[in-house]
Amino acid sequence: MAKVLIIGAGGVGTVVAHKCAQNPEVFTEIVLASRTKSKCDAIAAAIGAPNITTDRVDADSVPELVELLKKHKPELVINVALPYQDLTIMDACLECGVNYLDTANYEPKDEAHFEYSWQWAYRERFEKAGLTAILGCGFDPGVSGVFTAYAAKHYFSEMEYLDIVDCNAGDHGKAFATNFNPEINIREITQNGRYWRDGKWVTTGPLEIHTTLNYPNIGPRESYLLYHEELESLVQNYPTIKRARFWMTFGQEYLTHLRVIQNIGMARIDEVDYNGTKIVPLQFLKAVLPNPQDLGENYHGETSIGCRIEGKDKDGKHLTYYIYNNCSHEEAYKETGMQAVSYTTGVPAMVGAMMFLTGKWVKPGVHNVEEFDPDPFLAQLAVQGLPWHEVLNGDLEVNKVEG
Ligand code: NDP
Predict the structure, then answer these.
(1) Which end of the chain is more exposed for a tag (fewer CB within 10 A), N or C?
(2) For a pocket test of ligand 1, which of 5, 101, 179, 180 has the largest count of ligand atoms closer than 8 A to its C-beta?
(3) What distance in angstroms lies between residue 80's CA and the mean position of ligand 1's atoms?
């Protein structure tokens, strides 16, 4: 029925390609393109499906992207390269009349700062062109927004408190490694924290606020307040929310390494001169750290990501609600050769693409995932490897930290 173009052949791109290939009735033709074509070829060979072809593109270049889109004429681009490429790919999609989906919002290379304004500025152009752009369709952002939309649709008349909780209780056996692109990951974690409180953003120091939360099937884990991009759209789309926060777990060993990396200047994103060559320390660090795609083989344990929401139910009574997914690193690796962090990002990206291609999430313009119907998405998510669970009127724990 439809041809899809996946851009990016990292951990997430690998999972997206596997999952699209498992659903040939929707994704009749798959093109996988990235900066290094040999990586695309290796993924296509591992999948071994007859309907995957590969190509090369520098997605920083609009002319190269336009040439690629004109050559393959896909219905939809799934952008799982890096956040730096979001705008060039959106420009090329507009020029060629192609729909767009990504998993992370735009971030300029020279500034560790992400927000939706750059991509929301494309709303009118996509709408006028009759094209749909779906932003942030991984797990968080992605499923976290769909979970919130599901809660609003089925359970709440007013959502007042939203806490997105992200736990990785996996062990990859390395002293220090990041679970997705190290450059993007370290830029995100070393920023100030930020959360929504009574109509405005409150800023905290990096990882300053933390508390112990219990995760299903995992137990207690220290959880740190971070700023995360989906908070920006969720507080706009659900204005009854008084407080919105995002929490992520980190082990002590990870935090110690992170502190050292920062203290010795290796998290810097400006250029330094090394023997006459300009290098960006964080990009150099990426080159010597373990590749996130190679962590899968010995990765044990689970991730658990969900939304803890408090507010008034459809009859105006007080309600607490927790909706979450747990994903096993081992199972993800067995199926796709990638660990659960790539898996939990790649599966929702494929499901979002499926929603668009089957006509369920078609809406010209630029939209965050919570603007679409959550029901068909969550039904597919459960079938495609990420089953989810609900707890009503349990203890959300999050109120022990006032913020
Ligand atoms: P990787 O670093 O593993 O892969 C990125 C891929 O993009 C690589 O194949 C890389 O090519 C390619 N690439 C980079 N620059 C270019 C370029 N200029 N032109 C073409 N291809 C390029 O990252 P991940 O797979 O871990 O992450 C992919 C995306 O998913 C990121 O945007 C990340 O932020 C997002 N993400 C979202 C999550 C969510 O829940 N929403 C969670 C985790 C990740 P090469 O191999 O040549 O370097």
Answers:
(1) N
(2) 180
(3) 5
pLDDT tens series, the chain, 403 aa: 799 999 999 999 999 999 999 999 999 999 999 999 999 999 999 999 999 999 999 999 999 999 999 999 999 999 999 999 999 999 999 999 999 999 999 999 888 788 999 999 999 999 999 999 999 999 999 999 999 999 999 999 999 999 999 999 999 999 999 988 888 889 888 899 999 999 999 999 999 999 999 999 999 999 999 999 999 999 999 999 999 999 999 999 999 999 999 999 999 999 999 999 999 999 999 999 999 888 888 999 999 999 999 999 999 999 999 999 999 999 999 999 999 999 999 999 999 999 999 999 999 999 999 999 999 999 999 999 999 999 999 999 998 886 6
**Residue 360, token pair as written in the block:** 């369920």
Give the separation between CA 312 and CA 125, rounded to whole angstroms: 38
Protein residue closest via CA to atom 26 of ligand 1: 180
Look at domain 2-135 and name its CATH class: alpha beta
CB 397 within 8 A of CB 165: no
Domain ranges of the chain: 2-135, 143-338+386-400
> Ligand 1 mean position to 186 CA, how many Å?
14
Tell me which fold the domain 143-338+386-400 belongs to. Answer: Dihydrodipicolinate Reductase; domain 2 (3.30.360)
- Ligand 1 atom closest to the CA of 138, numbered from 1: 41
Give distance in angstroms: CA of 86 to centre of ligand 1.
Answer: 11
> Could you give phi then psi for residue 352, rounded to 5 degrees?
-60, -40
Distance (Å) from CA 215 to ligand 1 centroid: 28
Residue 91 C-alpha to ligand 1 middle, in angstroms? 18
Which pTM value belongs to this model? 0.96
Whose CA is closest to 255, among 331, 362, 175? 175
